[in-house]
Structures are given as structure tokens and as C-alpha cells.
Write a structure and sequence with these properties.
Layout: E1 3-10, H1 27-46, E2 51-58, H2 67-74, E3 78-81, H3 87-101, E4 106-110, H4 119-132, E5 135-140, E6 145-150, H5 169-177, E7 189-195, H6 201-210, H7 215-223
Parallel strand pairs: 1-2, 1-4, 2-3, 5-7
Antiparallel strand pairs: 4-6, 5-6
Helix pairs in contact: 1-2, 1-7, 6-7
Length: 232
């Protein structure tokens, strides 16, 4: 059985990445923070024992901040383009790509907004859907979710229509997974530990404090000036 860490990522291009950090950071600074978050996330994904890493990528890394580091970090991963108009469609397509590339794989999907994630958390998620669960969801503290582990990646289609970017998205996603779809036992849908993701300057500072030795923390320190009373 293949174990896959699927990273849904956006090329950190100035003016297109982490725009909610602007104007506390410049557009280039916000993209630099996003690049650091992605680099730390890829480090964690690549450190999971006996797992392949698939990156579903939107945008052009050649235009990204820290492009040379990103090219190096993506080496050895399988990069596929994101497909679909909505986030739900892109998630579904990325999981379908995993199933096509690695038949019989179990998977855990993360984004690039939780740079505090580590290999142990991802390994635990994969272990759950290898032996104990059909699915496992990690809720985010802002109401969304940060990780989705699946014993059968194509089952991501069951959450394709859940509205995203709302304060009830995580709960609604969990409900959709537990709704009794054929082959997906409600009792075998478990929860992963909740994490805070990074959307706002306050989020960035709080998460940086959790991983002070990471690239993300250094980028926040360098690129997000003291603004609006942020605790630094």
C-alpha cells in the first residue's frame, strides 16, 4: 500500500499570495511569507517515512518569491496542476490524480497555511486511514479544516459541494463525510488534532511563535513589521 502526502499549493507570487497580510506586509513580503510556509510544509511532507509527496500546484513557480528554493524543494515530488473552478472541484481533482498515479494509496491532504505541521502529525493521519478509519479530518481553529486523510482518495468527491471559506466549513465537511455515503461508515470518520492556519497578520505571528526555528518564523520576523499592535 502506498502512502501519499498531497499538498494543495499556490505559487507564492507577489500580489497573488497571502493578500490578507497586506498592508501589514508588502505584496512581495506577503508572498515571501507564503513561500516560507510552503517550504516548511514541504519539509514536513517529505519527512514522512515511506510516503510519496504529490503537489497540486496553481500558478507559476518561476515568478514566485524564493523560486530557487522552491524548485529544489519540489524536486523528488510529483507535481500536478490544479484543475477545476471551485476549491471543492480542485480538491476532488487532486485526489483523483493521486488515485490515478498511485492505485490503492491512502492519502492525507494539507495546504500551505499550517507551516507548524510536522511529519509526526501527518504520519498519524496516514496510520489512522491505513488501519482504523475510512477518513480523518483536522479542523482549523477559524472554522475551516487543515487536513483530510482518506483510505480511498477518490472519496474526496463527497465533499466537493461543501461551501468553503466559511466559519462552518469544517463542521459541514465532517458532516458530509459522516453522512452515510456507501462504503464510508459514519463511525469510521475520525478527527485529527485541530490547528490554527494562517490568514491574517495575527495568525502569522501566533503560528510563528509555535515554530520559532522554522523558515516561516524567520520570514514573519523579517517581512511583517510591527503593525496594529501585533505581539512580536
Amino acid at each position: 500500500m502506498t502512502r501519499v502526502v498531497l499538498v494543495l499549493a499556490k505559487a507564492p507570487v507577489a500580489g497573488r499570495a497571502k493578500t490578507r497580510l497586506i498592508p501589514a506586509a508588502t505584496p512581495a513580503g506577503a508572498a515571501g511569507i507564503a513561500a516560507a510556509a510552503l517550504l516548511d510544509t514541504l519539509d514536513a511532507a517529505r519527512s514522512v517515512p515511506d510516503a510519496r509527496v504529490v503537489v497540486a500546484l496553481e500558478g507559476d513557480v518561476a515568478r514566485a518569491e524564493r523560486r530557487a528554493e522552491l524548485v529544489d524543494a519540489l524536486a523528488g515530488t510529483v507535481v500536478v496542476p490544479q484543475r477545476g473552478d471551485t476549491l471543492g472541484e480542485r480538491i476532488t481533482a487532486a485526489h483523483a490524480d493521486v488515485a490515478e498515479l498511485f492505485p490503492a494509496a491512502v492519502s492525507v491532504q494539507i495546504g500551505m497555511d499550517t507551516p507548524q505541521v510536522d511529519a509526526a502529525l501527518l504520519t498519524d493521519a496516514l496510520d489512522l486511514v491505513t488501519a482504523d478509519a475510512d477518513a480523518a479530518l483536522g479542523l482549523a481553529l477559524d472554522g475551516g479544516w487543515w487536513a483530510l486523510a482518506l483510505a480511498e482518495p477518490r472519496r474526496a468527491r463527497h465533499i466537493a459541494d461543501v461551501p468553503t471559506s466559511r466559519d462552518d466549513t469544517g463542521v459541514a465537511t465532517l458532516s458530509a463525510l459522516r453522512a452515510g455515503h456507501p462504503g464510508l461508515s459514519p463511525a469510521r470518520v475520525l478527527e485529527l488534532p485541530p490547528l490554527s492556519d494562517v490568514d491574517t497578520p495575527d495568525d502569522a505571528v501566533a503560528v510563528a511563535d509555535l515554530v520559532p526555528s522554522g523558515r516561516f518564523a524567520r520570514a514573519v520576523s523579517d517581512l511583517l513589521p510591527l503593525s496594529g499592535g501585533l505581539p512580536r
